[in-house]
Amino acid sequence: MQKKIDPTRRSFVIAAAGVTTALTVAGATSGCQADSGADRQLRFATLAAAEDELARLAQAGELASSAVWTWARTLAHCAQSIEFSMSGYPQSKSELFQRSVGAAALGVFAWRGRMTHDLAEPIPGAPSLEAVADPAPALERLRAAILAFRAWSGPLRPHFAYGPLDKKEYELAHAMHLANHLSAFRAKS
């Protein structure tokens, strides 16, 4: 006779495995990126802090970069992420992933005050950014996305990996996302 597994226990075991995986991935990613001298390891808790750095970099004229993507493509990618928080992401991870691995990863990032992720990974299902070349429209798009997010009073859409977030949680996620990407750029001396 087979013993039935309690569904609550099963969910707990799956979630615990996801949390362990997220902590391992976040820790490994953090360790790899922390050694790079090109990563400035910026930390933003608000979009206002990110905007200050955006303005500084925009005024710099010429930028040095350790990023795979161009400055313009990076800006457009960050704008997409903020836009999708209001309109909906084109593709999402499973609800189980969002509640376990995704939520745990965001928790680790928030605890550390810094997100780390693959800076050349597009948002799943998002339109291609290959043709983005001019940074001026990309910067304006990002600034417009930030303004729209601030003014947004409607329901926010679940993040493709982290799941449902309230406005404060989303602002932190967006700020950390921007910090991670902007860390790869600096004003040329």
Automatic annotation (TrEMBL):
<dbReference type="InterPro" id="IPR006311">
    <property type="entry name" value="TAT_signal"/>
</dbReference>
<dbReference type="InterPro" id="IPR011463">
    <property type="entry name" value="DUF1569"/>
</dbReference>
<protein>
    <recommendedName>
        <fullName>DUF1569 domain-containing protein</fullName>
    </recommendedName>
</protein>
<dbReference type="Pfam" id="PF07606">
    <property type="entry name" value="DUF1569"/>
</dbReference>
